[in-house]
Amino acid sequence: MVKKVDHIGIAVRSIEKALPFYIETLNLTLEGIEEVSSQHVRVAFIKVGDTKIELLEPTSEESSVAKFIDKRGEGLHHVALAVNNIEERLEELKNKGIALIDEKPRVGAAQANIAFLHPKSTSGVLYEFCEKQRGEKSD
Ligand code: CMX
């Protein structure tokens, strides 16, 4: 059902300020930076072996990441799990009584289909399911 950890999301106030730790200190590789306007965030993907770290910087006060940082400060925000057939996976979880934030997937960073599970059903962790567009490698 779940293939692997696709990425780990870290909420930061500023990608520019957070990046040097990953790139210069840890010597990791920046894959790219993009704006996900539907989520009011700018994101940077950093490659770590066959998974990634995603730095999330809010672009407006409406962003759920801005609310998160206001309440809890910067830090671990979500864990994204790669799945196939995301709509079926969401249906299965719903039938098992798991609270879904998104009942239907929406388009997130890198044009992946994404959906979040509510942390109240998962011992306090915000999980994202993500499925790459067909034809794209799920590395
Ligand atoms: N991880 C774990 N728990 C979290 C959380 C997080 N990232 N964000 C909020 N919560 C918890 C809060 O601690 C709170 O718990 P209690 O009720 O026990 O106090 C509860 O969830 C409600 O939190 P809130 O601050 O009142 O916030 P909201 O209910 O308005 O929103 C959530 C919370 C998870 C529903 C909302 O952030 C959401 O819809 N997230 C999914 C979308 C998202 O995060 N997008 C940004 C990333 C996009 C991307 O990766 O491209």
Please provide a written account of the structure:
Helices cover 22% and strands 40% of the residues. With 139 residues, it is of the alpha+beta class. The protein has an eight-stranded mixed sheet. It has a single domain (2-131), classed as 2,3-Dihydroxybiphenyl 1,2-Dioxygenase, domain 1, CATH 3.10.180.10. The relative contact order is 0.19. Strand 3 (41-48) and strand 4 form a beta hairpin. The protein is built from three helices and eight strands, in the order βαβββαβαβββ. Carboxymethyldethia coenzyme *A binds next to strand 3, helix 2 and strand 5.
How far is it from the N-terminal to the C-terminal residue, by CA? Answer: 16 Å
**From the coordinates shown, what is the CATH architecture?**
Roll
Output the CATH class name: Alpha Beta
Q: If strands are numbered along the chain, what order do they take across the biggest sheet?
A: 2-3-4-1-5-8-7-6
Percent of residues in β-strands: 35-45%
Structural class by SSE content: alpha+beta
CATH superfamily: 2,3-Dihydroxybiphenyl 1,2-Dioxygenase, domain 1
Mean pLDDT: 95
The beta-strand count equals: 8
Per DSSP, the total helix count is 3
Q: Encode the helix/strand succession as letters.
A: EHEEEHEHEEE
